[in-house]
Design goal:
Layout: H1 8-17, H2 32-45, H3 49-57, H4 67-89, H5 94-115
Helix pairs in contact: 2-3, 4-5
């Protein structure tokens, strides 16, 4: 039986669709200069250092964001977080839940578009 080889891009797509919370921590040793460079590059992409390191390790091409895009991304990420919390609070009312869920999906699409430089 032949083993199927999964490309890095396919692994990233699978991970993006996997809704589980991140539960594993990894400790990495680096020099202060390496940390400063990684933090700086993560900031340029509008990502946390953790997300940046994970995506770089998986071979994902990362786009640099303009200051305007970074600001918009932060605002949309905050809005998405608030709407997710609201959605959790009103799950018993289907009419509101559907509307909030749709807004959350749309915000996530916009965040992804900004992150990908579209």
């Amino acid at each position: 039986m032949m083993k199927k080889i999964i490309s890095c891009c396919n692994v990233i797509k699978i991970m993006e669709n996997f809704k589980d919370k991140k539960s594993q921590a990894v400790s990495v040793r680096m020099t202060p200069m390496e940390r400063m460079l990684i933090e700086s590059r993560a900031k340029e992409t509008g990502m946390s250092m953790s997300s940046y390191m994970v995506l770089c390790s998986l071979g994902k091409e990362l786009k640099l964001l303009t200051e305007e895009q970074k600001t918009a991304y932060k605002h949309l990420a905050t809005d998405q977080s608030h709407f997710s919390r609201i959605g959790s609070l009103v799950r018993n009312r289907a009419d509101i839940t559907a509307e909030v869920s749709e807004v959350i999906r749309e915000i996530k699409k916009q965040l992804e578009a900004i992150r990908n430089g579209e």
